[in-house]
Amino acid sequence: MTLTADSELEASKVSPHADEAAPPRAWRTWPVFVALWAALLILTVFSLLYGRYRLPWMSWWKVFAEQDSTSLENIVLLQVRLPRVLAAILIGGGLSVSGAAFQGLFRNPMASPDILGAYAGAGFGASLGILLGYSIVGIQTLGLVGGLAAILLVWTLGSVATRMGGDPTLTLILVGIIVREAGMALIRLTEYVADPHGKLAAITFWLVGGLSAVTPHDLQFAAVPILVGVIPLLLLRWKLNVLSFGEEEARALGVNPWSIRVVIIVCSALISAAVVSIAGMVMWVGLVIPHFARMLVGANHKALLPASFLIGSGYLLLVDDCARGLFALEVPLGILTSLVGLPFFLYLVYRTRTERA
Amino acid sequence: MKISAEQITAGYRSKTVLNGISIEVSSGEVFCLLGANGSGKTTLFKTILGLMRPTSGKICVDGEDISRWSRQRLAKTLGYVPQAHTPPFAYCVRDVVLMARSVHSGPFASPGKRDIAIADEALDRLSILCLAHQRYTELSGGERQLVLIARALAQQAQILVLDEPTSNLDFGNQMLVLRHVKELAESGLGLLMTTHFPDFAFLCASRVALMKKGRILAMNSPEKTLTQASLEEAYSTPLRVVDAGLGMRVVVPRMN
Predict the structure, then answer these.
(1) Largest CB tally within 10 Å, which of A46, A114, A133, A318?
(2) What is the per-residue pLDDT for A26?
(3) Reported ipTM
C-alpha cells in the first residue's frame, strides 16, 4: 500500500464529510443578535405605551419636548412605566444570565438558581430582614447571605452525594429540592411569627412578587446589585466553557476553577437576592431561557450569555405585559412565569429521556 | 525538553498507590505506560499533571521542580488528552479546540483571530479540519479523541499526556489514533500514554514501563520490557509473545 493511498483511507475513516470541498460554514450568530436586539427594542416601546391609561405614539415626543413633570403623560411614562419596564429588563436578563452560568458551573442543563434553592434562601434572608424591621439595604444584605448559604449548601451536599455514587443530574435536583424546601419552611416560620396586621402582609405581598409597585427608588436598589452580578458573569463567559468540561480538565487547560466558581456563586446569589427583593419569587426564568438561547446561538457561553440576557429581558417584559393586561386584576408575575415555565420543564424531562433511550 | 518523575510516592489517605516511581519522557519519544487495573497508572498521571500532590518525590521539567509552577505555566508545558468523553453541552469542534487557548489569554478574554488560526492548524494537523463546525457531541468516539488531541496541540504544550487514547474505539480508529501519536512524536513532541494493550506499545512506543501495584516491574524498549515473563506477572494471565513477521510482535493470550 502506498503512502498516499494510506492517508486517503485515513481521511475517509475520520470523516464521512471529507469529500465536501470546503468545511461547512461557521454558525453565524450576529443575525440572531440583531433580531434579538430589535425584538427587545420593539417590546420595550410597546410595554411603555401599553396599559390601562392609553398613550398615543406621540406622547413620547410630548414628554421630551415639554419637560413638564406634572403632566399625566410624564408621570405615567417616566414615573410608573419606565421603572417597571427597566426592572423587567434587568430581572429577566439577570435571571437568565445567572441561570446559564449555573448550568455551566454545575455542568448540568437542569440547574438554575431558583431550582437549586437560591431564591428560597434569599427569600428567607429577606423575610427575616422584614421581620426584624431592617431597611431595604439590610433586607437585601440578609437576602444575599441567605442566597449564598443555600448555593453553598447545595454545592457541598451535591458533591458529597455524587462522590458516593449516583446520577449527578438527579442528585443535584434532589439536593436542590431539599434545600429549597428547607428555605420555604423557614420562610413560613417567619410568616407564622410575623405580626398579622403589618409585617405578615408585607412579607406575603413581597414574596408573591410582581412589578406593580416598582418606583424609581426601588429600581435603584435592584439595578445596582443585578448589574454588579451580571457584568462579571458576562466577562467570564468564555472561561465558563472550559469549566463545563470538569474540574480536572479545566485545571489541565490552565484555568483555575475555584476562582471562577466563587465569582459565579457570589454573582448569582447577588442577582437572586436583588430579584427576590424587588419582584419576589420569579421562578423558572433562569432554567427555561438559557435553553431557548442555546437553540438559537449554540452551546458556546460566549454567545449564550448575552443571548440569554436579551431573550430573558424580552420574555419578562412580555410576561409582565400579560400580568397587567390579561385580567382586570393584576396577576402576580411569579405565578405567570411558573405557569409558563413548568410545561417547558416537563418538555425538557421528556427530551432528556428520549435522548438517553 | 524532558519531564521526569523522581521517586514519586502518592496515594489517597492511608492507601499508598505509588511506591517510589521514577520515569522520564523526552521530546520526540512515545513513552507507553502499561499495567493492570489499579496498578497506579491514573494516579501517576494525575501527579505528573499536577492535579494531585505526591506525598514524596518531585516532578521536574528539564531539572526544574514544577511543584511551585502556576497553572498557566504548567499548561503551557504539559497538555492533557483525556479519554473521549461527552460534555454536557453540544459545543462545536472548533470551540472545543479553542478552549485550549484560554491559558494564553487573560481571565476575561475570549479567543481572537490568531487563536482561531492556531486551532484550525491543530485540526488540520490531524486531518480533521473538515469537522471544525460540527457538534462535538455528535462525532464518533475516534473523531472525538482526535479533537481532544488537537486541543492539546492548540495548547502548544511540549509534552502531551494521553489517558488511554484508544479505549472505546473500534479497531480502525485505534490504529488511526496510534498513527497520529507516532507522527506527533516524530514532529518533536514528547508523548506519555497509557494503554491496556501491550500490542499498541509494540506498534508505537519507543520506551515502555510496565507497572504493578504501584511499582515499576520493568522499563526499557518494548522488545526488552514486554516479555512473556514480565507480562504474565503484570497481568496474572498466561500468554505468549509471538513474532508476527515484518519485525512485528504481538501478544497472544492463552485460555488454558
Answers:
(1) A114
(2) 59
(3) 0.89
Task: Tell me, rounded to whole angstroms, the distance of Cα B233 from its chain centroid.
Answer: 24
DSSP element (H, E) containing A269: helix A257-279
Q: Could you give the CA distance from residue A293 to residue A284 in angstroms, rounded to a whole number?
A: 14
CATH number of A81-356: 1.10.3470.10
Q: Cβ neighbours of residue A231 under 8 Å, at least 6 residues apart?
A: none
Say if residue A13's pLDDT is above 80: no
| pLDDT tens profile A31-66 | 999 999 999 999 999 998 888 777 777 777 777 777
Cβ B91–A15 below 8 Å, yes or no?
no
Distances (CA, A) of A33 to A93, A239, A296, A345, B152: 14, 21, 10, 25, 32
Dihedral (Cα; A278, A283, A287, A288), 10-degree rounding: -100
Residue A153 pLDDT: 92
pLDDT at A8 > cutoff 50: no
Between chains, do A242 and B89 touch, taking CB under 8 Å as contact? no
- Closest-CA residue to B105 (of B89, B116, B90): B116
The model's pLDDT over B66-121, given as tens digits with 9 standing for 90+, comes to 988 998 899 999 999 998 888 888 999 999 999 999 888 887 888 889 999 999 99
The distance of A81 to chain B (nearest Cα, Å) reads 35
Pure H helices in A75-167: 82-105, 118-131, 136-163
Residue numbers in A near B102 (CB within 8 A) = 238-239, 242, 253-255
Q: Sketch out chain B's domains with CATH numbers.
A: 2-81+157-253 (3.40.50.300)
